[in-house]
Write a structure and sequence with these properties.
By secondary structure, this protein is α+β, with helices and mostly antiparallel strands. The chain is built from 8 helices and 9 strands. It folds into 2 domains: 139 residues, Nuclear Transport Factor 2, Chain: A (Roll); 119 residues, 3-Layer(aba) Sandwich (Glutaredoxin). The strands form 2 sheets. It has a 5-stranded mixed beta sheet, sandwiched between helices. A 4-stranded mixed beta sheet has the order 7-6-8-9. A hairpin with a 2-residue loop joins strand 2 and strand 3. The longest helix is centred in the middle third of the chain and has 15 residues. The protein is elongated.
Length: 284
């Protein structure tokens, strides 16, 4: 979901509504909304949405419609399905013409056969003060995903000035010294799933396993997707099948694994457990 594009749509919509001049009230909407995401309180969720004018819901890739019920149903079903421990963190906030716009990173716990696992949703809302209350006048949400979304990607994850071959040689040397292996991650700064995978590498249950056993080299394929093609060919990584694309080297630089069918291309749809299984399989 393109955050700024959605916020632009929100601004276009809310600018058509007039704002009644009332004494300003401190914005408390996010805390009230978060407080409703529990079994005892979920029935009160609907009270947070504007009725005059009617709150609007914006489905992915669609225009806003004056029916907020899909938004309310979405969150009520998550709570009733047994999701717990909702955490709501503002990622971006703006005040525009009397409206308060927020982008929220929402995480929650879900029971699975392997125990509790975290799931994620990105929520965006436009709030309007009505009398002494703030109410939501437009909302949209992402699908529930297993990997945390990359809401603030590192613009320098792939160093455009790096010499990939030199970095790989250095990583192999360090791996040999520290009894590790090397993971090559072919990708680019424009690749959303590359950032999702890197974020997964930094999760608390993944990072120790990665840091103990691997050196990681990010190999930039450039804006045109052709940079370092010779490096990709050397390590038998078919970039045309999608990125991020991974290869694993031994401490002697010998190729141990290279993906063949874009297995990591849709990193956003993977489970962090998949990353752990992969690292466990290829660690020394």
């Amino acid at each position: 979901m393109a955050i700024r594009v959605v916020l632009a749509c929100v601004l276009l919509l809310v600018s058509t509504y007039s704002v009644t001049q009332t004494p300003p009230v401190a914005f408390d909407g996010v805390e009230r909304w978060k407080g409703s995401l529990t079994t005892p309180a979920i029935a009160s969720l609907k009270n947070l949405y504007s009725t005059d004018p009617p709150a609007r819901f914006m489905a992915k890739g669609q225009k806003p419609v004056p029916d907020i019920s899909p938004e309310i149903d979405f969150w009520q079903k998550l709570v009733s399905s047994g999701m717990t421990d909702f955490e709501v963190n503002p990622v971006e906030e703006q005040d525009q013409q009397g409206r308060h716009l927020v982008t929220l990173a929402v995480s929650m716990k879900m029971k699975t056969a392997d125990g509790l696992r975290t799931r994620y949703v990105t929520e965006q809302q436009a709030w309007l003060q009505q009398g002494d209350r703030w109410r939501i006048m437009l909302a949209t949400h992402s699908d529930v995903v297993k990997m945390p979304p990359a809401l603030k990607p590192n613009p320098n994850l792939y160093n455009k000035d790096a010499d990939a071959k030199v970095e790989i040689q250095e990583a192999v040397a360090n791996a040999k010294k520290d009894h590790q292996r090397v993971i090559l991650v072919f990708g680019a700064n424009w690749c959303y799933d590359c950032h999702v995978l890197d974020q997964a590498f930094h999760q608390t249950d993944v990072a120790p396993l990665l840091q103990k056993n691997f050196q990681v080299v990010h190999v930039d394929i450039g804006d045109d997707g052709k940079k370092n093609n010779n490096v990709a060919a050397e390590f038998q990584v078919p970039i045309e099948k999608g990125i991020p694309a991974l290869a694993v080297l031994g401490p002697d630089g010998r190729l141990l694994y290279s993906q063949k069918n874009g297995e990591w291309e849709s990193a956003r749809s993977l489970d962090p457990d998949d990353v752990i299984v992969f690292l466990d399989k290829w660690k020394p």
